[in-house]
Amino acid sequence: MKKVIAGVLSVAMVAALAAGCQDTKPTETTGNGGETASTEESGEGGETEATTTEKQTMTFGTGSEKINLWSFTDEIPKMVGQYVKQNPAYGEKYTVDCTIIATDGGAYQTALDNALVAGGDMAPDFYAAEAAFVLKYAKGDMAKFAATYKELGIDVDAKIKEADIAQYTIEVGSRDGELVALGYQATGCALIYNAEVAKDAFGTDDPAEIEKIVGAGSGNWDKFFEAAAKLKEKNYAVVSGSGDIWNACEKSADTAWIVNGELNIDPKRDQFIDIAKTLKDNGWSNEAAGWSEAWYADMKGEGAQKVFCFMGPAWLINYVMIGNSGGNKAGEGTFGQWRVCAPPVGFFWGGTWVLGNKDAKNKEGVAELIEWITLDSSDTGLQYLWANGAVDWDNDPETATAKDTVASATVMAKSNGELDFCGGQNVFPAFIAGNSYASAKAMTQYDETINGYFTDAAAQYAEGNLDRAGAVDAFKTAVTDNLSF
């Protein structure tokens, strides 16, 4: 079985990677194709005395024309290395210098903001932004620095149509109707369920039947909670914790947290307060917090109650669930027991977008890389390699990437999405459906902060520390005191 290299996939995954890098000592290596890499502890990026921010640099190509890339992990830089390996002439023309600063404490954003404002030779020609803060760079306070893809010379309309790019990622990356950012990885979500639990509780583990049972694509939770009651009769939990449902409530909202400068609570987010309380009162979850040991134990089937499902993108399977299933093949832990189907409510979770600087020095070279990463649906494009587990960063099949969902439905439709972890099921159709259900129309650049206040308030109500009205008031107060809305 292939080892999985955890890439830049979500806020939590990035945080885990960043935390794991803090003990790395400064090193420098030289590889094939003119590649060099080094790491150093840096005081840049608004670092406080209590925080150590590691800055890493990587270089690909040996050409006389320089391009600067900024990112928050080495995933996109390694994509550049892959492109140079496939296209030696590019590396002979360009040298791509990559700056990598972890997101800890906002260090990456602070350093990137300073570099964009300062401009000049050290400014990024293209740069990465993850879901938690991409709107700041695509539509918000720092959007003025982003070039439209058309300004870079990319035939956007034709390429989007050809690749059948997930609409939500276009929504995220559009400014005044013009595309300025795209993701390469699709993070539309599916319902990932335990087939053995399903068969015992419902008499079937067939994805088509489970979709009917949970109300897939309905846009509401009615059928899902009917299923939760049946699961409880068999002593199963429907989810590990309320956070597994929060992501869907948050991203399925029709209106943003801020409307006309005022705080707004969309009904689909507001209902989460009642969902969290219902789950606790009925014992329908194990009350495990996301990214906790209890959450991971539920993936192994070792929690207080066996858990029916998790909801998330393919990266949740590849980079979290597999490693916490308790096995490497069918018959070990819960490995092989899982299946996927479309979720009741559409949403996406995480992802990374790529932007070009309007003042980029070598727009042609920047456009060539951005197009290959985000829009190339050919069998040699990054997305095809990614979807088929064929991105081999280190010339070592044991460290090749996992099969993952990508922004291009064209690519996924012609790719092999069969996963042993999911009993050999081709998971791509369910994730294509998940991508089609996902929407980004209710996002703002303040979501990361506001979401935290809201889930804290919901937890206070679920635990009985506040009544419902008091929880909502506490939420509003936190937002007003900290964000002035």
Describe this structure in words.
The strands form six sheets. Strands 1, 2, 3, 4, 5, 6, 7, 10 and 18 form a nine-stranded mixed β-sheet that branches. The longest helix is centred in the middle third of the chain and has 16 residues, at 267-282. This protein is 40% helix and 16% strand. The chain is of the alpha+beta class and 485 residues long. Mean pLDDT is 89; it is low at 1-35 and 39-52.
Put the structure in a nutshell.
The protein is α+β, with helices and mostly antiparallel strands. It is built from 20 helices and 20 strands.
The average pLDDT score comes to 89
The best one-word shape is globular
Low-confidence segments, given as residue ranges, are: 1-35, 39-52
Proportion in helices:
40-55%
What proportion of the residues form beta strands (DSSP E)? 15-25%
Q: Strand count, sense and closure of the main sheet?
A: 9 strands, mixed
Total number of strands: 20
Please, how many helices?
A: 20
The radius of gyration is 22 Å
Please state the structural category. Answer: alpha+beta
- N- to C-terminal distance: 51 Å
Write the layout of secondary structure elements.
Layout: H1 11-21, E1 28-30, E2 36-42, E3 53-60, E4 65-71, H2 75-86, H3 88-93, E5 94-101, H4 107-118, E6 126-130, H5 134-138, E7 146-147, H6 156-163, H7 167-172, E8 174-175, E9 178-179, E10 181-183, E11 190-194, H8 195-202, H9 207-214, H10 222-233, E12 236-237, H11 243-251, E13 258-259, E14 262-263, H12 267-282, H13 293-300, E15 306-307, E16 309-312, H14 314-321, E17 338-341, E18 352-357, H15 363-374, H16 382-387, H17 409-413, E19 418-419, E20 425-426, H18 428-437, H19 447-462, H20 468-483
Parallel strand pairs: 4-5, 4-6, 12-15
Antiparallel strand pairs: 1-2, 2-3, 3-5, 6-18, 7-18, 8-9, 10-18, 11-16, 11-17, 13-14, 19-20
Helix pairs in contact: 11-12, 12-19, 19-20
